[in-house]
Structures are given as C-alpha cells and as structure tokens.
Write a structure and sequence with these properties.
Helix 1 crosses helix 2 and helix 5 packs parallel to helix 6. The strands form two sheets. Strands 1-2-3-4-7-8-9-10-11-12 form a ten-stranded mixed β-sheet, covered by helices on one side. It has a two-stranded antiparallel sheet with strand order 5-6. Helix 7 links the parallel strand 8 and strand 9. It is built from twelve helices and twelve strands. By secondary structure, the protein is α/β, with parallel strands linked by helices. It folds into two domains: 61 residues, DNA polymerase, domain 1 (Orthogonal Bundle), CATH 1.10.150; 264 residues, Aldolase class I (TIM Barrel, Alpha-Beta Barrel). The structure holds S-adenosyl-L-homocysteine (SAH) and iron/sulfur cluster. The site of S-adenosyl-L-homocysteine has 15 residues, from strand 8 and strand 10.
Length: 373
C-alpha cells in the first residue's frame, strides 16, 4: 500500500457514503449459502438451474452484483418480486459488513469490514494522480510471521472466501462518487495471497472477467512473501503482475526476517521469479523494506544487484513503518539514499516509496484488523 504520489486529498472523489450501521442480526453466522461473488458465470447459471430456475437468471444476477451495484436481492428489479424474495432466503448479496472508514490526511481511506463470524479485515483506497488504487486483503491475519509486519503478529484467523475478496472491491467501488476512477487493485492488504491461492485465483477471475468487474489484468498486482509452488500456479492460472516481498539478498538475513525463507530459500525463490511468465515489457516488482542495520548497508545493495542480475525487475524501497510492537527501526535517510544509488547506478529502477495513510494505521504492515483508534 504504498504510493509516491503525494497528491492533494480529494475526499469528495473518494468514498462519500456514511458508513452503514452494523446489522448484527443478519443471518450470516454459520452461513452455508452460495458464495455468489466468488462463482464464475457458468457456476452461477448452474446454481440457478439447481434451484429450478432458467440459466439466464444467473446472468441477470451477475449483472446486478457486478455492474449495477445491487445491495440486496430487492434491488434486482428485473427479476419478479416473488423470485427476489425466494432468492433472499437462499443467498446473500454482501457477505462483508462495512463497519468503519478512516480518512488519512493524505487522502488515503481505510475501510474496515466485519466478517460473518466477527473477524475484521481491511481494505485501503489510495488516491493517485489520476486514478485510485484499492489494496485488498486475502486473509484475516497471516500465518507467515514476518518480523517487521503487524498483520502477522496475531497469526492467521482464517482464509477469505473468493467472494469475500471480491466483495471488498464491489462494496468500495459502489460507494465511490466516481467508481470508474478505481482502476488498480493490489493484493497487499492483510494476509499472504498465495497461502489462499484457490480463492485468490478465483477472485482474480471475477476481478478481470468482462461479465464481472472487468479490471485490466495489467492493473492487478499480487504481492507474495515467496510461496514458490503457488507462484508457479499463479503464472499458469492468472495473468496478473507479480510483486515479491524480498527484503534481503542473502539467506541468513531473510531467514531472520521472514520464516518462509527457510522453506523456500533465495535460490528457489529467484528460480521461480525467472520462470514466471512475463508478457512483453512487464517487470516483476521487488519490495525491499529498509530496516536499520539489518539489511540497509551498501554491501546489501550490491548483493541485491547480483541477485537480480538478468531479471526484468524494478525495486520498491520502503522505509520500515515503525510500530511499538516491532523491535526494528527504519533506516536513516542517508542510508536509504546510498542504497538507492547503488541500484540506479546498476541500471535498476529503484523508487523510494513513502507509505500513505500512516496516521490512520493504513500503511504497509500496519493492518491489524483492529478498529482504528
Ligand atoms: N503477504 C504479502 C502481501 C501483504 S504484505 C506480502 O508479504 O507480500 C504487503 C506489503 O507490506 C509487503 O510488501 C510487506 O513487505 C510490506 N510491509 C509489511 N510490514 C511492513 C512494515 N512494517 N513497513 C513497511 N512495509 C511493510
Ligand atoms: Fe504476512 Fe505479508 Fe505480513 Fe509477511 S509481510 S506477515 S507474508 S502479510
């Protein structure tokens, strides 16, 4: 959830709804109905047929869900009233409940959602110069335990269903004054998307499919801590941009920062990156959090250059977002500058990304799922 562009806040163009009140009595606890926003078109038609309805009802429902902003079956006015009432007994439109929105001084908005059983997840809407990027969650919590990340501190609560991933986009877009300006999606919120790859691949289908949300593949980016087998699958099954949270260029440092490195060390991770199918002129983004005295020396930068040699790569340098529960500090500005210079001298695009939304805990690694306060 980072962005260079410090454009002025344009709150009138972001979310303009008042948050709806919590509806604690919704019949979602233990809900076993269909995950409509996570089904494909043919699956939605098949579900309708299973209910004794013609297949075209499935296409109508999908249009209401993804194109026409229905918030309930009652909104689906092209369906007969009796059918709408019947459907309302069988399925839900919004699996997530919007509970709270916080707006940062830089215009970043953090939207908190409540899952049916009560866990909370977050999405972050980031204003860029001429569009918005939405950063979405793939899990409640995270099991990866990276030492620098607040999301990981509480462990994994559960995977999100595909429809819950998609619902973040549907609900945020629906509440924007100019929904067409939301053009970019990044899987950089709570969770490790490739630890929930079935649901994430399914969600990407509905994000990019033209009979659903119709985002351009080029404008969807998935960030991973480096789950190698699922990276291979992603390359096969979904055509999106890849970002890799690298954070170290040697195994000892990466083992210390990111336990996943012990399972998939750098040689395997880099082999998976080299094998990742990159369409013309696309690059893999490597995210590198700069942590004082841990990974920010000039020798680390030179090692990084050697590691990335031959790869179509760009590097996002992210000064650590400090947090009281973390025992790490951000690198000082002169270290950051030297690190960046080593990379640019070696012809890599290396951008220092200032995290947005720090004042509302919406910045990278600050998402805890707790109500902001
Ligand atoms: N699990 C995935 C995606 C979510 S984390 C992944 O790790 O890539 C999203 C980004 O936040 C990652 O790039 C991670 O490196 C970054 N991040 C986590 N904690 C951070 C912190 N304290 N300061 C700055 N960035 C952080
Ligand atoms: Fe999980 Fe990513 Fe945080 Fe690591 S950085 S704990 S993988 S969310």
């Amino acid at each position: 959830m980072t962005g260079m562009n410090m454009s002025k806040p344009r709150l009138d163009e972001g979310i303009h709804h008042l948050d709806p009140p919590l509806q604690e009595s919704r019949p979602l606890e233990g809900w076993s109905g269909p995950d409509l926003k996570g089904l494909t078109g043919p699956e939605t038609e098949a579900w309708c047929e299973g209910q004794g309805l013609p297949a075209y009802r499935g296409r109508q429902i999908r249009r209401w869900l993804f194109k026409k902003g229905a918030t309930s079956f009652h909104d689906m006015t092209s369906l007969p009233k009796a059918l709408r009432e019947e459907l309302a007994q069988l399925a839900v439109v919004d699996r997530l409940q919007r509970s709270e929105t916080r707006i940062s001084q830089d215009g970043t908005e953090k939207i908190l959602f409540r899952l049916p059983e009560g866990h909370r997840i977050e999405s972050v809407l980031i204003p860029e110069r001429d569009h918005f990027t939405l950063c979405i969650s793939s899990q409640a919590g995270c099991a990866m335990g990276c030492r620098f990340c607040v999301t990981g501190l509480g462990g994994l609560k559960r995977n999100l269903a595909a429809g819950e991933i998609v619902d973040q986009v549907v609900q945020v877009r629906r509440s924007m004054a100019r929904p067409e300006r939301l053009t970019n999606i990044v899987f950089m919120g709570m969770g490790e998307p490739l630890a929930n790859d079935d649901a994430v691949v399914r969600a990407i289908h509905n994000l990019t499919c033209d009979d659903a949300l119709n985002f351009s593949h080029r404008r969807v980016t998935l960030s991973t801590s480096g789950l190698v087998p699922a990276m291979e699958r992603l390359g096969r099954d979904a055509n999106v941009n890849l970002a890799v949270s690298l954070n170290a260029a040697d195994d000892d440092t990466r083992d210390f920062l990111m336990p996943i490195n012990r399972r998939y060390p750098l040689n395997r991770l880099m082999a998976a990156c080299r094998a990742f199918p990159l369409p013309n002129r696309r690059m893999i983004t490597f995210e590198y959090i700069l942590i004082r005295d841990i990974n920010d020396r000039e020798t680390d930068a030179r090692r990084l250059v050697r590691l990335l040699r031959g790869l179509r790569a760009k590097i996002n340098l992210i000064p650590l977002n400090p947090h009281p529960s973390l025992e790490l500090s951000p690198s000082p500005p002169d270290r950051i500058q030297t690190f960046q210079e080593v990379l640019t001298r070696n012809h890599y695009t290396a951008i220092v990304r200032k995290s947005k939304g720090q004042d509302i805990s919406a910045a990278c690694g600050q998402l805890s799922g707790e109500p902001p306060g």
